[in-house]
Amino acid sequence: MTTDVAMDQPGEGRLAHAPSDHPPIARAKVGVVLANLGTPDNTDYWSMRRYLSEFLSDKRVVDYAGWKWQPLLQLVILTKRPFSSGEAYKGIWNTEKNESPLLTITRAQTEKMTERLKALYGDDVEVDFCMRYGNPSTESVLNRMKEKGCERIVFFPLYPQYGSPTTATANDQAFRTLMKMKWQPSIRTVPAYYEHPAYIQALANSVQEAYDGLEGRPSKLVASYHGVPERYLLEGDPYHCQCQKTTRLLREKLGFTQEEVDTAFQSQFGPEKWVGPQTVDHVAELAKQGHKHIAVVSPAFSSDCVETLEEIQEEIHDSFMEAGGETFTYIPCLNDRDDHIEALLQVVNNELGGWLG
Asked: How far apart, in whole angstroms, are the C-alpha atoms of residue 95 and residue 99?
């Protein structure tokens, strides 16, 4: 740390040689911010509408011209979709804490990361989390970090594979916040970690543990990733390629054959052609081909959320069963597993090089 501060009390002090009436300042620290997608504040119509409006107005998510898209979004889509999305969230809502599972899990990940980093670096590090859409907002968290004395910040979008609608928009929002600051902290954004050995190992551990707990072995493991329009791939977004490599590395780590593992993509919406195959259709086709027991894992999601807890375990599950499947096993996201936190810690420590230690 470079700021020369004489401490008056824990956590704050005065600049050396400054006048006695100089305002107290926080001791210089390094911040680590875990950034996830987002969550509505509640499941009612207006909470869902605010959340969906922010999400679907993001040019990184839907990049159609605003004059075409916004009237359709505000006057048609957002009159109906908040109801259906609200029902989906109600089915998975953490009623005890009155929040979405994504928020619960991201907080748990942050708490474990805080423990690990505090053990390594003591009070020189500050850890928090933010959401790209909804609360706690990226702006509020980065401002709070700055107020606590974080002159350097590692900003970590929790997406293993880089995607313009995920990693890029999270970084965009962080930089928008910096644009408003008179004194900006230095910031490092964490790159995609889709091939990091510790991440692949944690994925493999979760699959193997799930398989060990089953009476019969699934004949197919489907790695289901969130989809993107095919146009994104053709325009240079590496997401699709990184997903394919994640599946290959996972398969090799598990020692499975190519015939035992498939890659598919979920959550398609809109009229464009998306990368495929679509998970909901693919699992039905597997059932028709005679696969009676399949397992589904979600390597692109760092936390279980509506796309896994509702879409995979209900819509995709039902598609498989209605097509003749018999046993459907969902393997949870890595969430706050210790091996996942270890993987994230290794990624963060790499970015902290030269700043701490």
From this structure: 7
